[in-house]
Structure prediction request, 200 residues.
Amino acid sequence: MMKSSLWIVTAALCSALSLSACSSARLGGSPIRSATAAPAVNPAPVEAVPSGPVTAEPLPPLEGSPLPPVAGAPMSGMPGGVPPEGTDVAGLPPTSAPAPAATPAPAPGNRTAMVGNWTASVAGGTCRVQLSSSPSLDLYRASASGCPNQDLSKVYAWDFRDGEVYLYQTGGAVAARLRGSSGGLSGVLAKSGAPLTLSR
Prediction:
């Protein structure tokens, strides 16, 4: 009876020891080393490297590239720190400003833009020409008053085609052809070739 109890206690003790060894290895502890395990090798000590204070400085420029200007510092190589004419304050050549866009020519307008009263200037004087929006057959009504030029004084109709204003005399002949915009027109009289301008 006593042997049997001793055997049970011994078995329980062995079982507890083996469980303890397994859980110790699983939880990060060191497992029980066997007598045949290789001895641990200790690494050689590492010599400490001396360190000094840490400073921050800009990197040197690449070889062949100009040094960037320092704000507030006089410009080296320039008398009195004044940049030569034709350079900006950083000592760099000025960048070329984009050329201003060319002013577009005034648009020729349309028939509606040409309607109204005009002052006609022709060799020999000025007079009034009115271009109406009222239709007259396939043209539009026009009238001239006080014109010393005979061709211009007979204007009775007008039209706008291909960017040009056509003035017509009684009888259907073209009195003048003019080009321009709603602010001013210029051309010549058909018969004489004398220059003619219309202005508002």
Summary: The mean pLDDT is 73.
